[in-house]
Fold these 3 entries.
Entry 1:
Amino acid sequence: MPTAPGAPPPTHHTPVRLARGFLTGGVAGASLAALVVGAIVESVPLFVTGLALPLVYGALLFLAGAPRRAREAAVVPRTALAVIEALEAVGGESSDVPVRFGLTVVADDGAPFRVEFTQDVNLVELPDYRPRGVVVVQYPPDRPWRVRIVKRPTPEWEDRAASARFDAVPGAGAARWAEPPEGRADGLVALLGLLVGALAVILLFRADLFGTDPSGRGGATEPRPSASSTASTTAVSSASGTVTLGPGRSFLDKGELARALGSFTEGGRARRALTLVVQERMLTVVFLPSGTPAPGFAPGALPRDRFPALVEEATTTLGVRSPRTWQITADRLTGSLVVRVVVTGPDGVASLEANGQGEVVRRAPVR
């Protein structure tokens, strides 16, 4: 592209620009992946990281660009007359229409040059712009492609534009400028960064996400028969564990809950739990992610011998006639372990709470 005298040529795809595009795409991909993976594996630190990462990156970009913005703001714009060679409305359905202008700028102290740019023009003012019309423009001397039409020039420049006549404006021999396009390379690099960032997060947390052993010996889950019967199924990953009993069996039966909890500690895996839920034939444990400040609890330390009595009390003394389902939830989100028994029936929902020793501390009958 020819250059105007005294102005450096624009750089379209410098290495710095491409690297910044790749990094921006990587941050976006990593942030989205962290939000999704953090929600799936229930990792609070990872989810918070996904929220904070783009904010921190945006702040760093803003600070890094401050010197450049200061230099650009210090440049005094140059004012000149220009001849409209062509104009075309390129879209828009509001009162301001984007118009593609082709101008020949005739500066007082420089050679004329051609420039193409897009500027919003109000529909009411659109008839004021016509081919071969003279307008007042301003542009940074070092970035002439950023030329803009001055809609309300000073009286002096307005008189000069009204009286100016350019019958023979250089055309073919004049330097030409246009707004630097983004180009395909920028989009491809940003997309590559997006994919790399997302893939990096998924690979880092693949063990929690898919239940795979980093050594390659594990699958997404580890299904295996329980110790008591092939009618039950156990699935354990690094994030959670589930035991499902076969027909005719219940976790209130003697020894069933102890055997199920024991299956989570086979092979020396003594992990603390964030939440434990017991239903008639299903036991679910959400394990505490490493590095989480929540206290958690050891599943084996639950007062499981008291569970049948707690369910009996909840189904018979809280006003639920013909109870349909019951559920036991254990968690330690605050300072002490809390065991809740919730019973549902045609009359509504009732519940009771017990402490870590299985002693009832609160009752909520059907209302």
Entry 2:
Amino acid sequence: MSALFQPFTLRGVTIPNRVWMPPMCQYSAAPEGPETGAPNDWHFAHYAARAAGGTGLIIVEATGVSPEGRISPYDLGIWNDTQVEAFRRITRFLVSQGTVPGIQLAHAGRKASTDRPWKGGAPIGADAHGWQALAPSALAFDDRHPVPTELTTDQIQEVVGRFADAARRALAAGFEVAEIHGAHGYLINEFLSPHSNHRTDAYGGSYENRTRFALEVVDAVREVWPDDKPLFFRISATEWLEEGGWTADDTVRFAADLHAHGIDLVDVSTGGNASGVRIPVGPGYQVPFAARVKAETAMPVAAVGLITDAEQAEKILANGEADAVLLGRELLRSPSWARHAARELGGDVHVPDQYHRSV
């Protein structure tokens, strides 16, 4: 059988294939009122289509652990029971199609309070449902962003608690995989990197101090997340800076730390914490970073980044560069990508009975 269509088991959860959907923000939730942050018809249709298309694991987009943890006022959140109930509709359908439902728990840090990308994505104020962003240090992301408020140590502990509370709610909502968002320049990534973390207390300076917050979040989530359910961590393996940033060497070292703290898989991406950098974007451009983590640690990894065709995805797995592939833009273009790839590679994938004539 094709490597792409081999089941993959982590703890007590078996994912039917290695075609996974990464978190991709839809910026489509209500920005105010009782339905703030709750998934709606758009989210249901979006995720349901990819489940019916045979995707093995769907990780729901970056979901704020608190209102100020959202990237935009239109992001999903999981800080109240109304949101939990709305998510249950999605997770029930995904499970009915044989897809494992996952969720990414996130805090946007200094990159919070921005408009939707198709509206320009600029920082917004209170008149447009915005708020004051929080960060490890009072350093703006770029010239467009305002200076964030530096978190106190008490506030840091509050955020750690928010992640744990969000994980409890994610479990109640029916998710079987949780992923902690430590990439793309959001709060956890900001703490990890000396580029954005200029603190002089126990959460800044040395590698051990800069990774402290991330590991406290992992420990808090792992404590409430069941032992039989896997916990992922998404990381930016490099910031593409020539000096002064988080590096691939740091990522390999940290992956071993994450494994020791109960993380079951690292979802390896890059960039997002430094503006104006040159990124050599091209087919599979981030795969070598995933391959290095897999080769140098005991941590399972998933690769992401312009993986578009079945042969390319199969080769990544067959070469041992990753344990699974995450297809973002390609799944937006083709919700039934997994089914098409199975036909091409000779693999088996779930097809809804209602679509039997398409097989």
Entry 3:
Amino acid sequence: MDVVSDAIAAVRTGSPSVNRLRVNGTWCVRLEPYEGAGFHVALTGGCWLLPDTGPALTLRPGDAVLLPHGAGHVLADAPADAARVARAAPFETVGDRPPRSGAPAVELLCGKYRLDRSHTHPLLAELPDVVHLPREGAGADPHPELRSAIALLAREAGSPGPGSCAAVPSLLDLLLVYMIRAWTTDPATGSGSARWPAALADPVVTEALRLLHGDPAAPWTAGLLATRSGVSRATLGRRFTALVGRPPMAYLTWWRMTRAATLLRTADAPLESVARQVGYGTPYALSHAFRREFGVTPGRYRAGHLPRAHSTSLAKQS
């Protein structure tokens, strides 16, 4: 696995959802804050997005916007004052509207991802409330893979066919990866002052992260990681800490605990197996480190996240 894939996998829960919104004339809808991430893509026509905090922005045809922290916001046909925002209809109550003569049609692709924010990877935590990815006018599109994913998702959401139930969730996952990737690689998205895009652009730090995420259970030491990354221990420590925010071994411990939490939430493997997968020789060693990070034992953590039928027996594995 790589950092972006692991960061998403560590917080993703349930299944993402998507729908198409077709409106015209005068309209204004509100999406309340939610535990997850959301996105909108303007397929036809344009509109305004008004976040609860922060400046309004225009969505033109082909533009995509990611709201990675589930910020509440309003979508409208035009800039809206406070009184109009207060009267906005709930998004869930607005469906297709019959066309009105002379009123331009607007078609949006809107989706949500369910996320568990109890231990968000710092890469995702660093994302701004709104990531605007405008479609380029003339010239080469800097994110052609994003446009391809949007086109495929729009087709499946608009005209479901055999296999759509499998295709749509996969395309939604792909779209999220491409939107986050665009933020990390394109200075135009406002990521220039952020730490993690710089970390992923540094070849030494990127290699160290690749090694740690590729095999977190390996018996890593600072010296071994530096050797495998092609630099001295001091150089790796300095560059890694400056860009990631913590030394390599501290990051590894944090990631092992985050990975353990994901395994405990999503599988019923014995605690001994979970310990081995994240680099601990015994369940006791894992439990000690896990409790330091989360404040509870692995067994009790798992009992709080798995269906109740498993809770009593699994909580004893602490």
